[in-house]
């Protein structure tokens, strides 16, 4: 647990907010969590600072009815701070943490794949020729549907492309 | 070369191919007759000279 | 002036078909195969036309360069001619018309090069082509319309009395197509080339005379150059006219009236 | 009239017919479809650019 405490202190929240590009609601929940955490810490500090010893002798001298003081003393003695059953929480946190770590690994793998794809597209962009050099075969390979359409046109003996004349004009010499 | 497209070749061309064989046949007969005609039979440039000579013997 | 002494007998000598590589063997019935100069020039024509189209497609890029624009415009012109003449539904004859146009056009253009051979100047090629197209069109019409094809020879709305006469006239004019298509091309090319040959021989004589005459003949030489230009125009016009007529014959075959 | 010398009639006819048929075949199977293919792609690209 100590490492966790040290790690949590080292977390530089401002960087977490800005650089990780988290969604708005994650940042809000993070901030709420941090506020609750600091609030709890402050209260804890404040209360732990207070004296927990009760000066029973002084009370006995003031109060006549010492029975009340005895009762208070008994109460004080068998008063135990309620120890929350933290282990359940911890286990939950543990499982959550395991799941989180596993999800983190998963996202990490996904990010690796994305990285590779980005690399490929980057390479593609670098070696891709400008639009002027786009050849008919490239588009044909990219969209086999067009190739099939033209093949059926050829089989049927249809050579005119509807709408081509209006859009691209007619290079007709006659 | 580039890829081959399935445009029909025989569908539009069959009448002209049939007609082609007809004219081919006619011209073949015309040529055989003309080559053996007296005017060209003896011509030195006649590539069919040997053939004609052999036929002449029968 | 040392006179070149190779003998040019007649201006028609340029049209002679001679065998360049001949093989006349008496095996299986007198095999007579030979690569004639016409064969060589038709192979050259095939190489030129296909090469022009393979070189001119700008590596099949979508954005055309100068060469592919000109080929695209020839494709557009011929496909619109086929569409207008034969109709939008049966554009299936476009490759045939396109290649016929380029066959005759490039053949004529090759023949304009001095001392080359003119494929379309050989009677048998032109007439053979014309008769083949004529019979082909008739076969096509018969295959589509069967007996009704003969209604083509009876113009609509003729009184019955006139029908036999008109049918005869229509038959003659239909039959004339077989010959006219070929003879038109043949006559134009042969006449043009013969004229150029005669004039050039004459101009050569004038140029090789004394200096004054040589300078004076520059004027008729100008006319001669004009005639060469005319000959180029004739090559284009003849191939276009032939293609247009084949399209209209195809329309008659497919659409009758 | 050298065109009337009958020796190579068949030869001339066969060469020109074979060359013409080869021309029609090459054009219809290899070269002409490219022009319609190019036109369809140009239409596709313009439609593509209008969409977004």
UniProtKB/TrEMBL annotation, chain A:
GO cellular component, as recorded: mitochondrial inner membrane; proton-transporting ATP synthase complex
GO biological process: proton motive force-driven ATP synthesis
Keyword tRNA processing in record: no
GO molecular function, one term: proton transmembrane transporter activity
Pfam families: Mt_ATP-synt_D
Family stated for the protein in its record: Belongs to the ATPase d subunit family.
Identification of the protein by name: ATP synthase subunit d, mitochondrial
Gene, per the UniProt record: ATP7
TrEMBL record, chain C:
Pfam family, one: ATP-synt_A
GO cellular component, one term: proton-transporting ATP synthase complex
Highest taxon of the lineage: Eukaryota
Transmembrane portions of the chain: 38-56, 92-111, 117-142, 149-169, 181-199, 211-230, 236-254
Compartments where found: Mitochondrion inner membrane
Organism phylogeny: Eukaryota, Fungi, Dikarya, Basidiomycota, Agaricomycotina
Gene3D superfamilies, A to Z: ATP synthase, F0 complex, subunit A
Cited HAMAP family: ATP_synth_a_bact
Keywords for this protein: ATP synthesis, CF(0), Hydrogen ion transport, Hydrolase, Ion transport, Membrane, Mitochondrion, Transmembrane, Transmembrane helix, Transport
Family recorded in the similarity comment: Belongs to the ATPase A chain family.
Natural source organism: Pleurotus eryngii
Gene name for this UniProt entry: atp6
UniProt-recorded name of the protein: ATP synthase subunit a
Membrane topology annotation: Multi-pass membrane protein
Automatic annotation (TrEMBL), chain D:
Membrane spanning stretches: 12-32
GO CC term, one of those recorded: proton-transporting ATP synthase complex
Main location: mitochondrion
GO MF entries: proton-transporting ATP synthase activity, rotational mechanism
Compartmental location: Mitochondrion inner membrane; Mitochondrion membrane
Membrane topology: Single-pass membrane protein
InterPro entries xref list: ATP_synth_su8_fun (IPR009230)
Keywords, ordered alphabetically: ATP synthesis, CF(0), Hydrogen ion transport, Ion transport, Membrane, Mitochondrion, Transmembrane, Transmembrane helix, Transport
Assembly notes: F-type ATPases have 2 components, CF(1) - the catalytic core - and CF(0) - the membrane proton channel.
Family, per entry: Belongs to the ATPase protein 8 family.
Role summary: Mitochondrial membrane ATP synthase (F(1)F(0) ATP synthase or Complex V) produces ATP from ADP in the presence of a proton gradient across the membrane which is generated by electron transport complexes of the respiratory chain. F-type ATPases consist of two structural domains, F(1) - containing the extramembraneous catalytic core and F(0) - containing the membrane proton channel, linked together by a central stalk and a peripheral stalk. During catalysis, ATP synthesis in the catalytic domain of F(1) is coupled via a rotary mechanism of the central stalk subunits to proton translocation.
Protein name: ATP synthase protein 8
């Amino acid at each position: 647990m100590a490492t966790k405490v040290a790690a949590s202190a080292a977390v530089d929240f401002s960087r977490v907010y800005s650089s990780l590009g988290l969604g708005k609601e994650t940042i809000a929940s993070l901030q709420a969590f941090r506020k609750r955490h600091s609030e709890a810490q402050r209260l804890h500090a404040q209360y732990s600072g207070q004296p927990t010893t009760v000066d029973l002798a002084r009370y006995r001298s003031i109060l006549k009815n010492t029975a009340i003081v005895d009762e208070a003393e008994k109460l004080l003695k068998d008063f135990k701070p309620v120890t929350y059953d933290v282990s359940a929480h911890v286990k939950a946190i543990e499982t959550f943490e395991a799941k989180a770590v596993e999800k983190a690994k998963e996202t990490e793998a996904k990010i690796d794949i994305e990285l590779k794809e980005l690399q490929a597209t980057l390479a593609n962009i670098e070696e891709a020729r400008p639009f002027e050099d786009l050849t008919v075969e490239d588009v044909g390979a990219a969209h086999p549907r067009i190739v099939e359409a033209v093949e059926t046109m050829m089989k049927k003996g249809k050579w005119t492309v509807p709408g081509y004349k209006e859009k691209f004009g007619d290079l007709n010499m006659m | 070369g580039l890829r081959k497209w399935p445009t029909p070749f025989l569908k539009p061309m069959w009448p002209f191919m049939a007609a082609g064989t007809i004219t081919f046949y006619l011209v073949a007969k015309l040529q055989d007759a003309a080559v053996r005609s007296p005017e060209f039979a003896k011509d030195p440039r006649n590539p069919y000279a040997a053939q004609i000579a052999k036929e002449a013997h029968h | 002036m040392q006179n070149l002494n190779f003998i040019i007998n007649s201006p028609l000598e340029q049209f002679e078909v001679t065998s360049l590589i001949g093989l006349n063997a008496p095996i299986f019935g007198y095999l007579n195969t030979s690569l004639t100069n016409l064969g060589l020039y038709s192979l050259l024509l095939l190489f030129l036309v296909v090469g022009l189209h393979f070189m001119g497609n700008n590596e099949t890029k979508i954005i055309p360069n100068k060469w592919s624009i000109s080929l695209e415009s020839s494709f557009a012109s011929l496909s619109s001619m086929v569409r207008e003449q034969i109709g939008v539904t049966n554009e299936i004859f476009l490759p045939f018309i396109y290649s016929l146009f380029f066959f005759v056009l490039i053949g004529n253009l090759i023949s304009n090069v001095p001392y080359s051979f003119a494929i379309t100047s050989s009677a048998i090629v032109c007439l053979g082509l014309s008769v083949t197209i004529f019979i082909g069109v008739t076969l096509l019409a018969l295959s589509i319309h069967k007996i009704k094809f003969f209604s083509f020879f009876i113009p609509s709305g003729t009184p019955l009395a006139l029908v036999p006469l008109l049918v005869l006239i229509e038959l003659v004019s239909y039959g004339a197509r077989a010959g006219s298509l070929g003879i038109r091309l043949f006559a134009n090319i042969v006449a043009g080339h013969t004229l150029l040959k005669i004039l050039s021989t004459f101009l050569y004589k004038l140029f090789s005379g004394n200096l004054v005459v040589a300078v004076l003949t520059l004027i008729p030489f100008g006319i001669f150059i004009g005639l060469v230009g005319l000959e180029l125009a004739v090559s284009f016009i003849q191939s276009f006219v032939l293609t247009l007529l084949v399209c209209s014959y195809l329309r008659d075959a497919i659409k009758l009236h | 009239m050298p065109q009337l010398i009958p020796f190579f009639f068949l030869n001339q006819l066969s060469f020109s017919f074979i060359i013409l048929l080869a021309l029609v075949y090459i054009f219809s199977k290899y070269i002409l479809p490219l022009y319609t293919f190019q036109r369809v792609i140009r239409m596709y690209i313009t439609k593509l650019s209008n969409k977004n």
